[in-house]
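job 3f2a | input accepted
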Amino acid sequence: MVRWPTTEAVLAALEEWAEAQAAARGELRAVGCFGSYARGDAGFGSDLDVVAIVDRSDVPPLQRLRDWPFEELPVPADLIVYTVPEWGRLLARGDRFADVMTKEVVWVTGRPPHAT
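job 3f2a | predicted structure (116 res):
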């Protein structure tokens, strides 16, 4: 029988992972999750949607993922890494995704600028 980790176990692992990343990365401002784990309706096979906010990056957004060991998380994860200015522009757009980021993200370490 295959067992999937509980939501509580996944969020605890994310918090531990985020704290380790914060200790290793001085530029890290915040880490949170959104989607099914943030809403509390994750089930068997759900992936973990993670957002990280960093002060700055000289690396294009899609290439930033290379330096993050999200494979250490207990379930498959999708990671988005925003710089502080990119995060501000995202929230200013006011579209549906900005609304999700404003209302749904559960921050496990740090606080991003402009978070409500």
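job 3f2a | The helical segments are 7-24, 36-39, 84-93, 96-103.
job 3f2a | closed
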